[in-house]
């Protein structure tokens, strides 16, 4: 079974569908979203910037959640990957994307982590952003020297 990285994401409630959306009213609330490794998902509505007590998963007791906002921000991904706190979960959570650069004639390999950052207004589903944590490219060998 896929071992999901446990994420915590703070989402502005005004970006989601809510009871007051029709009034165009800006609400001072945020949703704290927890996605646990065990598959449990929890949404807690709280005042903006309010700090909650440490959350513990009611299903498996896990207390460790990684801050999605931190990992999505311009934090130094150049740090050694092995030092990441969830290094042993990467294998199950990396999505490999391959792009072909027509002009450079090269293949670009991107190793992306999918990090939750929104709740889709239409479906209430969690939305994810791809964050590239590692990439490399391979040049086509067409330029090899001929004898
Ligand atoms: Zn859990």
Set out the fold topology.
Blueprint: E1 7-12, E2 29-35, E3 41-47, E4 66-67, H1 68-72, H2 90-93, E5 94-101, E6 106-119, E7 126-139
Parallel strand pairs: 1-4
Antiparallel strand pairs: 1-2, 2-3, 5-6, 6-7
Bound molecules: zinc ion.
Zinc ion binds at residues 36, 38, 40, 57, 59-60, 62.
Could you provide a short overview of the structure?
With 147 residues, the chain is mainly beta. The protein has one domain (7-143).
Q: What ranges have pLDDT less than 50 throughout 5 or more consecutive residues? A: none
Strand content: 35-45%
Mean pLDDT: 85
**Ligands bound to this protein structure:** zinc ion
How many helices does DSSP assign? 2
For the record, give the distance between the C-alpha atoms at the N and C termini, rounded to a whole number: 52 Å
Number of strands: 7
As laid out across the biggest beta sheet, the strand order is 3-2-1-4
Oligomeric description of these chains: single chain
Q: Outline, from the CA principal axes?
A: globular
Q: Helix share of residues?
A: under 10%
Number of domains: 1
